[in-house]
Each structure stands twice: as structure tokens, then as C-alpha cells.
Queue: 2 jobs
Job 1
Amino acid sequence: MRIPSPKPRGHTPLTVLLLAPSVGDDEEIAESVQRALTAAGVRWSALVPDTTAPACYHALVLCGGMGVREFLDVDAATPGTLRADVVEAIRSAHRAGVWIGAPCVALAVVLKALEDEVARGAANRRLVSDGVAVFPDLRVVSTNRPLLGRVRAEREPLIAQFTATLLGESHERRAVGASLMADP
């Protein structure tokens, strides 16, 4: 399935492509992220990844939790192999300079997808503040606390802070994104 490129009119809102697991507690984490994005006035799409579309968005978010197993290729000979479409969506976003949000264990998925694309040790430099970690060399924002097992009242403030940090880092893409998404 091809992801439609957002075509804003007038004021260009930030747009986010959301790759979210659809099971159990992980669905609740995805819903928390969706609520935080909506509260921030961000347009988001939760669709099947496309290898070219992430460049049209201001950020790519992979929701964490145990549902990241949906990002694994179950037919691969090597356990832990990521699905090719997920890898390509992450790499495409990274190559385009799109910030990637990867709360909880989704950070491991992003690091695995980028292992052949980034300099060794790029994930070592991070800025940590109140539950959120920013990896500026990778253009990745994550939580530095697990989300699994947290009740909604504990999870929501952490996700809100994660989302605000991601949107702050992605904000400078607004002008670039507007030119990418303008009608021809």
C-alpha cells in the first residue's frame, strides 16, 4: 500500500507517520502516542510503511512495547531479522533527515535497521532529560524508561514529554516539509 503524501493548505502543520503494533498493551502505548500527537495539533497517519513516503513527513514514530515483534520477519532464517519494509521505511526517513521517534524497545528496532548506515558509536552520544533521550547524530528521540507495565497515569506524561521533544527536534523540518509537500 502506498502512503499518500500529505498536502497541507495554508499553514503547514507538522505531520507524522506512525508505525504502531496492534496488540494488547502495545496498542495502548500507540493510543497514548496518538493522543499526544493529536493534542499537539499534529496530523498523523498510521499506515503500512512505504519506502519513499517517510521523506514527506516531519517525523517517523515506531511505537514500542512487545508489539515490536510485528516488525520482525518471521520467515527469515536468522531470528531477530527485521521486515524489509520496516527497515526501508526507517532508512528512508534517516536518509531524508527526518527525525525518528522510538519510545521504549522500538529504539532497538531503529538501531538494528540503521546498523549498516551510521558510524559505529553514533548511538553513544545522547542527551538525557527527565525520561527522554535524544540521539542527535542519529536524529532519534526515545524514552529512557520502559513503557511496558506502566499504568496509563504513569505512561501518559512520559509519552507527552517524548512527543514534545520529538516535535521540537522536528520543527525545523517544517519549511523543508512544506516545499516537499507543495502541490506541483
Job 2
Amino acid sequence: MFPALEEEPLFFTTPYNRNIRSNLRAAYGKVMLINTDKAVENAFVFLNFEKKYYSLMTMTKSDGSFVIPLNYFVDLNTNDEILPDPNEVTEIEIFNNSNRVKIKAKINQTNNLPTIILGGEDKDLTQVEQVLAATTKAETKNENTKNINESMLIIFPKENSIID
């Protein structure tokens, strides 16, 4: 079938395991198809780490959900097991035969991702913006009186914002 492969022995290396314990929770989320309420089954989900660690990969289940354990990271150059910084940025890439989406997030933000729309816009979850806020302000006339005038300001969410 593959003449060149039949002549050569199969060769690969496995990383050295030092049993580093990670307390990072698994990355998980749910993938839906754009403009529908259908879950995306058998889409590829990659966690990429900007040429620092080997990518992690899984596929979505029939309900569109995915889980990637974050307990084993291998350095791309040394093949050593590594414990990354939870605030390190990763790129989550999800695709199937016809659609693709990328999400940028910190590793510690991947354990409860908002619903991901396959075929939608790429998202950057590292930029924290205040999309719904309420502030209260209390004023007193002087220390002897207990009359407090409270006011509350509510700001509505921005268009197309993610609230979690």
C-alpha cells in the first residue's frame, strides 16, 4: 500500500513522564452551528499554545459538547512535561468540513466557555470589558443624621457581548 513505509521501520519518541500534578480544571464548552439551534457533532477542537507546548485535541460529542483535560502539557522543544501558568493565553480552534472559528482565552478561562458558534466571529476572551454594570452611591448630609439618599445607575449590555 505504502511502499516507502513498508521498507522503513516505524519510529517515534514518547515524552519523559515526571508525574507533574496539575490543578487546572478541564477545558470544556459546547459548539452550535451558526444561525441554527443544532449542536455540532464530530468537530475538531484544538488548544494551541503559540509554539510552546504540543497542541491538545478532542472532538465534539453528539450534543456539541467537548472536554479537554489540562493535566498534561509537553514542551515542544524539550519534550519535558510542564506545568503552565494559568494566565497564559491559548488559542482554541474549532472546525468541521465547512466552518471554522477561533477563540483566544487564558488557560484558566477555558473551564467554562460560553456557547461557541461555529461559523461565527472569532472571539477574544482575554479582553475583559464591563458589559453590564451597576453602581450605587450613598450620600449623607452630616454624621448626626442617618438620612441616606441612594441612587443606582444601570448600564445595559453592549450589542453582541458575552455575559457569563
